Amino acid sequence: MNDKITNWTRKDDAVVENAIRRGATRRELLQMLLAGGVAMSAGGFVLGRAGKAVAATPVAGGTLKAAGWSASTADTLDPAKASLSTDYVRCCSFYNRLTFLDQGGTPQMELAEAIESKDAKTWTVKLRSGVTFHDGKPLTAEDVIFSLKRHLDPSVGSKVAKIAAQMTGFKAVDKQTVEITLANPNADLPTILSMHHFMIVADGTTDFSKGNGTGAFVREVFEPGVRSVGIKNKNYWKSGPNVDSFEYFAISDDSSRVNALLSGDIHLAASINPRSMRLVESQGDGFVLSKTTSGNYTNLNMRLDMAPGNNRDFIEGMKYLVNREQIVKSALRGLGEVGNDQPVSPANFYHNADLKPRAFDPEKAKFHLEKAGVLGQSIPVIASDAATSSIDMAMIIQAAAAEIGLKLDVQRVPADGYWDNYWLKAPVHFGNINPRPTPDILFSLLYTSEAPWNESQYKSEKFDKMLIEARGSLDQEKRKSIYNEMQVMVANEAGTIIPAYISNVDATTAKLKGLEPNPLGGQMGYAFAEYVWLEA
After folding, report:
1. Which fold has domain 60-73+216-286+510-535?
2. DSSP, res 83
3. How far, in Å, are 25, 273, 329, 503 from residue 333 at the CA level?
């Protein structure tokens, strides 16, 4: 029977195993296998093997403790307002989405049993039955409608309001069926609904500090900027979670975070600095490094509406001054891939591989910077440990600038408060963007004229129109062509420099099992707590 499976890899096995852990039905699993080229006659064999793998490995019990790298008093359990990885981890613990992305970046069903459309404009969402919130309330169509419509209310302050704005109609067909109408066709809707912000909350919720979701953990403690504790949801509609409780907090200092892991205080240290890898590796078999390259990047932002970024030659000069290869080799210790100044990574189907990165050229940089009149001036550059490896990147760029007579005053500011006080505000500063599943989402969040996180204040009417055109096309090749041109526009016109796509490294104790890569980022796309387990 096994010889009927072609081009099937261990990664494919892992995807199926992960789907089983997430509660996928046999029908959904068989559809997944057929899409992967597995004959129906061989499907039973694959599912049997995967089922045994899932059943044989998890161990129940224990308290999972993990540390992220950023937190603030603005931490929230309101999915619509989530903006940091710490928020995403907690939302993934307490809530569920209609869909999720598997390891290959393909949307799979979660709270939705099926999402279908004939024209990519009107979508029918069939919900799973038997799902309840932590307070015992059954999941219904009204909960889904309430959760999605919240993003359209300006008073909510949703981080994905611009993306959600395309949803113009909601109808409860029955208690388990929702009809969503879009302003224009968008074949990406099932993928969009996998974003962390689109978690489903109970109809009428106003107090989000309770974390009343349908997720694997019930909130016991939530102290913004401090910690959260979740207790295993005994009425969870899936088979998990494996651990009895989950505590999450942030340790902003990288060395302290790693030391907490090595001393046994935590089981997972999220997103460690490449400099800390050697220390972890030197500890022998007791610790493991989990690497994920999925589109995360740290970028240098120059606001086009403020000096010196309002001078085009300054932008051009800085882009030639960045040695991308050296940043990957030195700042990232080889854990990354050279970037071409646009956010769609090589892991994405729509990545424009023909768009070559700017070559490091100090002479061209000097020509443009001299023309901009900034040589001899002191230009403040804001960096922080809050933006992964930005300090090291800043030092590399500063050294290159000094060689041509440009003084970059690198100001290292604390991680605490960085995102509120400096990001999006300072004329020249670093950002750090988590992976997003589609070009439409990346461009909508970061580069359209009304984007909420428009880091360089890039505005182009042509760009905005192209995004709408690509979104509405059901022709994949046409969409790819449009997205390719948009990537060129961002690389050449925006005030953002994306030198590399970073490989995220989470360090764990060897006792932590089940951690897998995910296209939405490290820590298993921030959803690890539900799926990992602790060996005795």
Report:
1. D-Maltodextrin-Binding Protein; domain 2 (3.40.190)
2. -
3. 42, 9, 5, 10
